[in-house]
Amino acid sequence: MSVSKEFAQYVTTLRYADMPAEVVAFAKICILDWLGSALAGSSKPPVQMIAQVAAELGGAEQATLMTGGRSSVTHAALINGASSHIVELDDIHKASIIHAGTVVIPAALAIAEWKQKSGEELIEAVVAGYEVCYRIGEAVSPSHYYYWHNTATCGTFGAAVAASKLLGQNEEQIVHTLGSAGTQAAGLWEFIEDGAMSKQLHPGKAAMNGIVAALLAEKGFTGASKILEGDRGFVRAMSQEGNAEEMTRGLGSVYKILENSFKIHASCRHTHHAIDLMVAMIAQHGISWREVEKVRVQTYQVALTITDNPDPATVYAAKFSLQYCVALALVKGSAGLTDFSEEALHDPAIREVMRRVEVSVDPAIHARYPEKWEAAVELELADGSTLQQHTEYPKGDPENPVKYEEIVQKFRALTLDQPQETIHHYLRMIENLEQVPDVTMFFAQIKGR
Q1: Statement: residue 448 has pLDDT above 50
Q2: Could you tell me if 73 and 109 are in contact, meaning their C-beta atoms sit under 8 angstroms apart?
Q3: Which of 76, 202, 209, 409 has the largest CB neighbor count within 10 A?
């Protein structure tokens, strides 16, 4: 049996009624967390540019856009996926290195709204999408991650599965959906060299392509039946150590959505461990950045491959600079959405501290990646003393979790520009999502934007 066939069987048999209460509650938290980022990102210039292109292309008014108005389900997935990724506060899964919310949820919401599906059906689709893309991401990482943005590539499968589930596809259709999803999977890391806007295109296109794949299968359009494990399939083409057989091990007996992590800092997840340590050390020891002569950060190689940038030129590039994020946390005591600004980018104090930051790979820490996203920080103070601290899990990991109340607080912080009525509507809607008979009610407050 092909891997796609096994996934298809899983998707068709997954039922809300069989889900533990913990899984339902967690899925709703994922949706709330996604929504906060999507609303916060909707006004950002790259998202507005994508929305302008979508308007030029036209489309039937099938689903709601975070930027306001309605368009086709594909354009809704494109815009809403991009919108949810840009503020760098979206969820993340350690082992697969995927921001599943940015691809699975926009695709699921677009189809659910179009087809007037219930909240229960939406939850089913989200859980299924997370499960499949996480398993694929785990199977091809870490080598895949060097060139390919897992959220864009592996995420395409998650979006496709979510769409398939909501469209009520049978096993054969889902196999074809996965085949067409896999052949569209793309997203290269080269954007990071320029701080280019391509990163926002990645989740949007992955969500959009997943829907396209599912809609094609509805019409009888065929896709490769062994797109994942085939000789010229996804795993062999895009990973050095990939093992397709591992993708379905334990499938149906666990819920990988429960392994999801949430962000509390508005930067690349590979900077969060060091930010956590800086904030904790400031609080514990009451030190000022002026007392710190040297900051030494040790972590795993991937963190440096993505974030070793001693001189970021833009605010967005600063979010992918370990040196900048450490300096920002030391000077300001936080690294939230409003902490990253043009003023902060050129702050003399932050720039001065950046010059004192040294980053390197610790072989022991590297050996435990990606199971643990660790860091160790040493501060050398002006009086000659040193402070040291280490963390295995950034705040927001399942092993170092955030509370539901913290996710709500984060949502409120990301939606300060929204009317209180809108905020209350979304909080009530998601809290009681399983009781919602028609997901079109979800966007009742956004249609006039």
Answers
A1: no
A2: no
A3: 76
